[in-house]
Amino acid sequence: QLQLMESGGGSVQAGGSLRLSCAVSGLTSRRYCIGWFRQPPGKEREVVATINTYGSTTDKDSVQGRFTISQDNVKNTLSLQMNSLKPEDTGMYYCAASAMIRTCPSTTFGLWGQGTQVTVSS
User: Is 82 exposed, middle or buried, given 0-12, 13-18 or 19+ CB atoms closer than 10 A?
Assistant: First the structure.
């Protein structure tokens, strides 16, 4: 069974950087979407960035130019490089997977890691 485990969260001042990693284990196929979601304090979970089976990425408008999602298929890891962090980026960040292949609707993500906390102070 596919399992996801995040790491790399922490506390940083505004303008700083963090790199999140997600270890992916139990792979039986490379045909899936995978991505990062976050849940700000008191708000609903939202998609941050996704990668489909073919390596195409999508990301939330508010993180474009600051966050970069990438996948290492040799090491079976998913990463999220976050630069120029803002206080509004604070939240619990989750790695998640979907059985979808080409498009990655956020509602199709059914497998989740335990999350890693990111806190950005002003």
Answer: buried
Provide CB contacts within 8 A for 77, sequence distance 6+.
21, 22, 23, 24, 71
Contacts for 21 with CB less than 8 Å, ≥ 6 apart: 6, 7, 8, 77, 78, 79
Other CB atoms within 10 Å distance of the CB of residue 38? 23
User: What is the CA 71 to chain-centroid distance, rounded?
Assistant: 11
What is the per-residue pLDDT across 93-110, written as a single tens digit (0 to 9) for each?
Answer: 999 999 988 899 999 999
In this structure, the strands spanning 77-82 and 10-13 are unpaired
Question: What does the pLDDT look like over 23-53, one tens digit per residue?
Answer: 999 877 778 899 999 999 999 999 999 999 9
Specify the length of the chain in residues: 122
Cα end-to-end distance, the chain, whole Å: 40
Residues 6 or more apart whose Cβ sits within 8 Å of residue 108: 33, 98, 99, 100
What does the pLDDT average to over 73-95?
A: 95
